[in-house]
Write a structure and sequence with these properties.
The chain is an all-alpha fold and about 80 residues long. It has helices at about 15-30, 45-55, 55-70. The protein contains three helices and no strands.
Amino acid sequence: MKEIFRDELTGCYNRRYFNYWTENEIKRCRRFSTSFVLMLFDIDDFRNINNHFGHLEGDRVLVRFAEFLHDNVREVDSVV
């Protein structure tokens, strides 16, 4: 996928891709009378990680979390 759709730090798809994907997925699901699942994650108190340990450590947490997600989703799933 084009680089404009990826976050430079984590390699995850970004909001631009999310908007594109969601619109198309909704159309596909309506056409074929199927559904899809959207999971949202929130890293509790992430601001405290940045404030206490610094932004470099916060970046490491984000990268590790993204790696975990990529390693644990099916090939047909997207991490956005």
